[in-house]
Amino acid sequence: MSELDELYQEVILDHNKSPRNFRAMEHADRKAEGYNPLCGDHVTVFLKLGRGIIEDISFQGSGCAISKASASMMTAALKGKTPEDAQELFEKVHQMLTGESNGSEGEKNLGKLMILAGVCKFPARVKCASLAWHTVKSALQNEKGVASTE
Amino acid sequence: MKAVQEISRPETAAGLFDVKKIRQDFPLLKATVHGQPLVYFDNGATSQKPQGVIDALARYYRAENSNIHRGVHYLSERATEAYEAAREKVRRFIHASRLEEIIFVRGTTEAINLAAQSYGRAFLRAGDEIIVSAMEHHSNIVPWQILCEQVGARLRVIPINHDGEIVMAEFRRLLSEKTKFVAVTHVSNALGTIVPVKEIIGLAHQAGVPVLVDGAQAVPHFSVDVQDLGCDFYAFSGHKMFGPTGVGVLYGRHEYLDKMPPYQGGGDMISLVTFEKTHYNVLPYKFEAGTPHIAGGIGLGAAIDYLEGLNWSQVRAHEERLLSHATDVLTRIEGLKIIGTAKEKAGVISFVLGQVHAHDVGTILDREGIAVRAGHHCAMPVMQRFGVPATTRASFAFYNTCEEIDVMAQALQRVLKVFG
C-alpha cells in the first residue's frame, strides 16, 4: 500500500463523509474550541460528564478529511471513558501521530484509532489529525479560551 | 489566405517564448519530488531562483564579504559598491526618479510596517481613517490595525464584488475628509485580481491622501512604473521576484520620506551621536539601521539583471497563455469552482474542488510532485468573503508550462477518484 493509500484509507474517507457525533450539544457540561492558525481548521468539542465518565461527546467545525475523520473517530473512542482514560488515550494517539511510538505496546492498544498511524508519514498533516485531541484535552481540563496546535 | 493567417498568430509574430531554455536557468526546476518531476505552482509564496542569483550570493561571500558604508579598506569598498549598485538597479527597475527613494528592508511586511509606524504615528491622529481593500494580505491589514490602536484611527475596508474586484463606487463613498491614508494591493495573492491602483491613487490624491501599494505579487509578473502610477509608497519582496529571501524594498516619495521620523535606531542611520542629541543620516540611510542583508541586496540586483534580460512582451503573452489554459482546463473538472474571476488577473488560480478540503487536495498533488498552496493564503477576510474555509492555489511564473497544468488537471481527477 502506498503512503497515500495508507493515509486515505476507506475508514478515514468514510468518517470524513459521514462523521459520527457531528452535532452541537445543548446543555453541554464542557465545551472547547480548537483552531489551527496555519490552515484555518476549526473544531468545537462538546462534552457531557456524569457518573465519572464522558456520557456524551460531539463535535462541529470545518477542516480537511484527516482532521474530520480524526475528530469523528475520537468521539467514538471516548464515549463512556473516564477523563483519566481519555487523557491516557490522548498521549498514546499523540505519540502515534508524531511517530514516536513505532510498534510499541501502547500503540497496539489503540484499536481502530491505529488507522490514523499513516499520518506520521505526512509531517504537514500531523496537526490536522491532532487538533480535535488537543481540543478535548482542553475541554476536560476546563481550560478557558481556544486550544491551538501551535 | 486562411493558412497564412493561422501561421501569423500574434504569439508567433512577437517571437515564441522559449520556456524550455528559460527553465535551464533555474536549477531546482530539474528536481524530482516523490519520484515525479517537480511541478512548481507555488510562486505566489516564493519563486525559484535563477543560477545568476545563486552565484551572486556565493560570489559575495567568497570574494567581497565585508561590512558596508564604514570600512576604508578594499573589501568594504567593493561590498559597498556592489550593494549601492543593486539599489540603482532597483530604482531603474521600478522607474523611481531618485536613488534615495529606495529603502532596503527585509521584505514587503517590513516595508509596510515601516510606512505605518513612521508615517502613520507621526501624521495620523484620533478620528482619522485609513482605507484598505477587502482582498489585502494580512501584512497590509495588521500593521494598520496596530497603528489604529496606537493613535485612535479607524480602519475602513473597500468591499469586493463576487468576481473579486474592488467596488470603485464604494471606494469613492469611503473617501472623505477623515481619510488620511490608503493602502491597497496591486495584485491579490489569493485571487490574482489586478487592482486598478492608478485610478485609486488618482482619486485619493484628489482628496490629498497618500497611497501605499503592496506590490509583492505584481513585480514578478509585469513592469511597474511608480512615477506613472503616482503612488507615494510601493512595497515589494525580493524572494517573490526570483531574488533571495530576507530582502525587500520600500519605495517612498522623497517629500514624504524627508519628513518621516526614523523607524529603527542604530548604526548606519545616524550622522552624529551624542548623549544630548543625535542627528540622523540622509535618505535612504535614515531608514536603514544596522548592518543590512548585504548579500541579499546584491542577489536582488542579480535577479533584476536576469529579468531585464527577458523579452517582457513575450513573458506577458506566455503568462496570459498559462492563465487562460489553466482556466479552461480546470473549469472542465467536475465540481471545481474557481475563486477569483476578475477581468484583469495575474497568473494565480484559487479554487475549491467539490467538498474536498484544500489540504487533502494539496497532499495528493504533492505526491504527484506538484507544489501548490492550500489554506487561507494569509488572507482570511477573503476566504470569509467567499464563504470557504480554504482554497487550493496554483500560482504561475514565466518558467511554467501548459503541460505542467495538464499534469495538475490529471492529478485533480485522481483526487476526485479518492474522494469519489
Topology (SSEs and partners):
The complex is a heterodimer of chains A (150) and B (420).
Chain A: H1 3-7, H2 10-17, E1 30-36, E2 41-50, E3 53-62, H3 65-78, H4 83-97, H5 105-108, H6 126-140, E4 146-148
Chain B: H1 2-7, H2 10-13, H3 19-24, E1 32-33, E2 36-37, E3 39-40, H4 51-64, H5 74-93, E4 102-105, H6 108-123, E5 129-133, H7 142-151, E6 154-158, H8 168-174, E7 179-185, H9 197-206, E8 211-214, H10 226-229, E9 233-237, E10 248-252, H11 254-259, E11 270-273, E12 278-280, H12 294-308, H13 312-331, E13 336-339, E14 348-353, H14 358-367, E15 370-371, E16 373-375, H15 380-386, E17 391-395, H16 402-418
Parallel strand pairs in B: 3-15, 5-6, 5-7, 7-8, 8-9
Antiparallel strand pairs in B: 1-2, 4-10, 9-10, 11-12, 13-14, 14-17, 16-17
Quick recap of the structure?
The complex is a heterodimer of chains A (150) and B (420). Chain A has 150 residues and is α+β, with helices and mostly antiparallel strands.
Brief descriptors of the model:
heterodimer; A: alpha+beta; Sufe protein. Chain: A; four-stranded mixed beta sheet; 4 strands; B: alpha/beta; Aspartate Aminotransferase, domain 1; Aspartate Aminotransferase, domain 2; seven-stranded mixed beta sheet; four-stranded antiparallel beta sheet; 17 strands
General description of the model:
The complex is a heterodimer of chains A (150) and B (420). Chain A is an alpha+beta fold and 150 residues long. Chain A has a single domain, classed as Sufe protein. Chain: A, CATH 3.90.1010.10. Chain A is 41% helix and 20% strand. Chain A has helices spanning 3-7, 10-17, 65-78, 83-97, 105-108, 126-140, and strands spanning 30-36, 41-50, 53-62, 146-148. The termini of chain A are far apart. The model of chain A has no long low-confidence stretch (mean pLDDT 88). Chain B is α/β, with parallel strands linked by helices. Chain B has 2 domains: 2-30 and 311-418, Alpha-Beta Complex (Aspartate Aminotransferase, domain 1); 53-308, Type I PLP-dependent aspartate aminotransferase-like (Major domain) (Aspartate Aminotransferase, domain 2), CATH 3.40.640.10. In chain B, the strands form 5 sheets. Chain B has a 7-stranded mixed beta sheet, with helices on both faces. Chain B has a 4-stranded antiparallel beta sheet with strand order 13-14-17-16, covered by helices on one side. Chain B is globular, with a radius of gyration of 22 Å. The model of chain B is unreliable at 1-14 (pLDDT under 50). The A-B interface holds A 2-4, 7-8, 13, 16, 38-42, 62-66, 122, 124-125, 128 and B 356-360, 363-364, 367, 374-376, 380, 383, 389-390, 418-419.
